[in-house]
């Protein structure tokens, strides 16, 4: 959320525009009945939402959910990690783009120090949560941090995922020249580490995985720019104000908030609506990017839609 766009005068959503947590649970229930088995809590920053620990605790009623995870910047994990684990959260993915304090401060725009994020990672591990780390790589910005990040998390046995800089939203100053491809990242790593590919755990897995030969630590590369995986996408995204997106790069979503606030729509009808929206999806923006030349088309902001 660049400070020049989301500064002190930015008009954020009013409380009544947000889905209430009971409304959110109702929508999740519809997805679960449609056989969704994995749920990720994202943001913005999800730990800023009042009641998030209690909300995760209430998800226990969905016995069919096999995996409940959260993506976070990690800054509030020292306060919340133990409670999240007790409530039923299983995993966290922590966003960390640099270990160098100056690089990290420039990228986060708020003057925060990477040690604060590392403290959050430690708190999550101490609480028994599984941890992965995401690093978005930008040429000329934090590409010099690839090897230090790889060394740090290899030594700690924490899975690190390198993500190609994506053209999500309209305010992150994306350009093709800023992208370091997954192939380039692998070439850098191959000069310092020995590793082998790991077979995907399931169809639709977004990261291509590798295992270090000496200690078994894993890392992954997510290549939605250089090698899109739209045809295997199995994800849907729900914004805080209840819009359903079936593509990370979409311009608009379907208003599920209006549906759940419609007193005439029962749970069976909501499930049917969700199933219909999914079955009609035809998004494949990343595959069409080069052909259609639509990289500059309007898209929902990453801070609004989650990762």
List keywords for this structure.
globular; 11 helices; 307 residues; alpha/beta
Walk me through the structure:
There is one protein chain. The strands form 2 sheets. An 8-stranded mixed sheet has the order 1-2-3-4-5-8-7-6. Strands 9-10-11 form a 3-stranded antiparallel sheet. The chain has helices at residues 21-33, 52-58, 77-87, 101-108, 114-126, 146-156, 182-190, 256-260, 267-279, 285-292, 302-305, and strands at residues 38-41, 67-72, 91-95, 130-137, 159-164, 195-198, 208-212, 218-222, 237-238, 243-245, 254-255. With 307 residues, the chain is of the alpha/beta class.
Topology readout:
Layout: H1 21-33, E1 38-41, H2 52-58, E2 67-72, H3 77-87, E3 91-95, H4 101-108, H5 114-126, E4 130-137, H6 146-156, E5 159-164, H7 182-190, E6 195-198, E7 208-212, E8 218-222, E9 237-238, E10 243-245, E11 254-255, H8 256-260, H9 267-279, H10 285-292, H11 302-305
Helix pairs in contact: 1-9, 2-3, 3-5
